[in-house]
Amino acid sequence: MQLLVFRGYTPVISIQVTLPGFSAWVSPVVVLFRLVATRWMLALLLVLVPAILNLSAAQERSTKTSSSLSPPGCATGNCGLRSSSAYTELVIGVFQHVYDDNEMRNLYRWGKTSNVWRDFDDDLDDFLARNRVLRISVGKAREPFILIVSKAEYDGAPPLPGDLVRYVPLRPHHDAEGRKAPSRFSVLSGCIAILCRTTDGPCFKNYEEGFFNKSTGVEINVRTDKTVPSGKVVDPMTALPVKAVKSAL
Fold it and tell me: Quick one: 5 exposed, middle or buried, by C-beta within 10 A (0-12, 13-18, 19+)?
């Protein structure tokens, strides 16, 4: 065993390892350094790999969120929300939920970041103070529909979860908040009326849920706005099925 070997001008402590058919010089210092370096590299990889994976997942979630066209509370599409007007047709469905302030803030931010409400005033406080956002479900598929009504109108007759309601767009220039300083969001507002309370089971049998042309009462497809072949027909004024209206005359 040789304890000191000169490599050039640098003394290195080495040990000669001899095996049958094999002989080599091994430096314990180099071996120890490599072991320590390997452990540090493994520890560094254990820290960096999860961090990189988490960053990639966060970026993917961020991309999905930023590219999403659906508002909070809506799985696909815009669920009736539009950029420059309220949904223009008649809707009959079951009231589900009124958004709280936090949900309204998220909806407002979605409208601004998705550019759906790009041209509206950047006054979140005014939006919260003067409006209410409601969600109803429609038909057997429980199609979600989101609408905006003025706070004054909502407070006048607030629906309860499970109530059957009718939605129609507001008439032009109608603003329940007052004409002196109408909210920009008033053009997105609709009118909601309670047809049946959730406790009045027999009342529900008098109506048909769905999306209907506000002028003719003919059932339409909410995604295409086209007439549903052999669809239902309701009276636009009473929201009752046309056959029920005719039999009552």
Answer: middle
What whole-number distance in Å separates Cα of residue 167 and Cα of residue 92?
Answer: 6
- Number of domains forming the structure of the chain: 2
CA dihedral sign, ordered 209, 213, 215, 216: negative
Question: DSSP label at 3?
Answer: S
Q: What is the pLDDT of residue 80?
A: 77
**Who contacts 93 (Cβ-Cβ below 8 Å, separation ≥6)?**
136, 137, 138, 139, 143, 145, 164, 165, 167, 209, 210
Domain ranges, residue 219? 90-248
The token duo for 192 is 């909601």
Same domain for 124 and 37, yes or no, is no
Q: Are residues 54 and 175 in the same domain?
A: no
Which position has the token pair 């049958």?
A: 20
pLDDT band at 196 (very low <50, low <70, confident <90, very high): very high
Same domain assignment for residues 173 and 227: yes
Residues 6+ apart with CB under 8 A from 223: 77
* Tokens found for residue 94: 């079951």
Domain membership flag for residue 163? yes
Question: Are residues 59 and 107 located together in one domain of the fold?
Answer: no
Residue range 7-15: mean pLDDT, rounded: 52
In a domain, 82, yes or no: no
